[in-house]
Structures are given as structure tokens and as C-alpha cells.
User: Fold this.
Amino acid sequence: MRVGAGFDSADKAIVREMESGDLVITADIPLAFEVIGQGGHALNPRGEFYSKENIEERLTMRNFMDELRDAGVNTGGPAAIGQKDRQAFANGLDRFLARYCRE
Assistant:
């Protein structure tokens, strides 16, 4: 799918097209917040599931770090994704598929 240019246009298209129960893989916390609000599941590339129980805390921290960066504070960035992260992602995806994709 191709979406037009614009702030968060791809995120908006993802949320518009998803259905309750769908899995979205993203490191974008505001997108994960929207996905969960629409009844979806969100898994980040490091294998962590965002949930109703943890997404607001993650969003608050993300916004705080954004404010620090806007104020000129160098907050660094996340560490590079390593083998341990890839394994955690694969395990999380496997658990999701086993739980929600039974036929």
C-alpha cells in the first residue's frame, strides 16, 4: 500500500486498515498506542508486547524523552538490535501465532 506524504500518514493508514485482533510489529510507541486502542496487538522488534497495562507508561516516557531532546539534551538512542533481541522477537511472534492463529 502506498500512502501520501504527511505527518503520520502511514500510521493512520495502518490503524484504518487493521481489524481487532490484528498484530502490528512496530517500535513506534504512539502507533502501538493506537493499535491497542483499536483492539489490536503490538509487538516491537525487540520482542516486547505492548499492552493495555504498559502502553501508557511507555508513551509517557517516550514523550518525556522527546521533550528532553527538544530542550537540547542528548538522550542517545536505543542500542543496536542484537541476536538476543532477534531471539526474543522470534519467541514473542511464535507465542502470538500459537495463541491466536490456531486453525
User: Anything to note?
Assistant: The two ends are 27 Å apart (CA to CA). The helical segments are 9-17, 29-37, 55-70, 83-100.
